[in-house]
Amino acid sequence: MSGTKVASSQVRTDAEAMEQKSPPRYQQIADVLEQEIGDGRYDEDRRLPTEAALGRRFAASRHTVREALQILVAAGLIIRIQGNGTFVTSRPAGQFSRVVGTLNAMITWPGTRVEVLSEMEVVRDVGAAGRLQIPGEFVGRAVTRRLHADQPFAISTHFVAPEVAERLDGLGPHESEIDTVVGRVEQVLSERIAGGIQEIIPVVMRDREVCEQIECAAGDPVLNVVTLYYDDLGRYPMLTDSFYNPDRYSYRTDLRRTGQ
Predict the structure, then answer these.
(1) What is the DSSP secondary-structure string of 51-90?
(2) Of these four, 132, 143, 215, 226, which has the most CB atoms within 10 Å of its CB?
(3) Region labeled Disordered — which residues (predicted)?
């Protein structure tokens, strides 16, 4: 392993900058290294500095550095080989990597665009109506596809109450620059519907129709994210069922413990 020396002035600069931030030290270190990996500072399959070298750079213990590296392992950015070192992994070209730490981050998609594949219409769907806890068997439904660098990586079916769907009749197939459907619903209703969310995230095999839309082979495993939005009164105004091409999308949560 390399024994690269780090100037004391750089140690103070990196350490002092981190003292001014609120996240835990290991998260700060992980964020810096992730940014450097994204900027191409470390080539694919190139060995990273040792834990001791990183500890000197960030004025942190080896335990703290080890926790930071574990975050990058979980994100698929590095691999650790016992007795050989830590290496940057290869990432498919054009993959959209998303880090989620707040609900606001979860309902925004910077750097992407959306296509409306099927305009909002009222259809019979007993299952969706039941999950939204609305009377009757009918719901509003629209289908969108999200792209990054002009490559499709997700297809989503959105469900709302019929009366909401009627006010969203402008959500047609030519409106390709809307940010999110949940944002459009909140704009139309002039109220916040996403006070919180519930998510179920299984891995499933999808049929040809879905895979054609996100450019994966039929029968390949895809990430299925079912999101149920609820407002501040505990009502469920919107349900989204999404499928993601795992070769073009990675999803990482960054949650911090609060309270005692």
Answers:
(1) HHHHHHHHT--HHHHHHHHHHHHHTTSEEEETTTEEEEPP
(2) 132
(3) 1-24
Cα(154)–Cα(146) distance, integer angstroms: 5
Q: Which residue bears the tokens 């009164």?
A: 233
Domain count, the chain: 2
Q: Among 38, 67, 88, which residue terminates a domain?
A: 88
Q: pLDDT of 182-221, one tens digit each?
A: 888 887 777 777 678 888 988 888 788 899 999 988 888 8
- Determine the pLDDT at residue 256: 61
CA trace torsion 240, 242, 248, 253 (10° rounding): 50
Q: Based on the fold, state whether residues 154 and 71 are members of the same structural domain.
A: no
- Tell me which residue has tokens 């691999």: 79
CA distance 144 to 121: 13
Contact 250, 225 (CB under 8 A): no
| Tally of CB atoms within 10 A around 226 | 15
Taking the C-alpha atoms of 149, 188, 168 and 126 in order, what is their torsion angle to the nearest 10 degrees? 100
Taking the chain, what is the end-to-end CA distance rounded to the nearest angstrom? 41
What's 57's domain CATH number?
1.10.10.10
**CA 258 vs CA 23, 122, 129, 162, 255: distances in Å:** 12, 42, 35, 38, 9
Q: How far, in Å, CA of 236 to CA of 161, rounded?
A: 9
pLDDT in tens, 217-234: 888 889 999 999 988 888
Residue 16: pLDDT band (50, 70, 90) is: low
**How many whole angstroms from its chain centre is CA 145?**
15
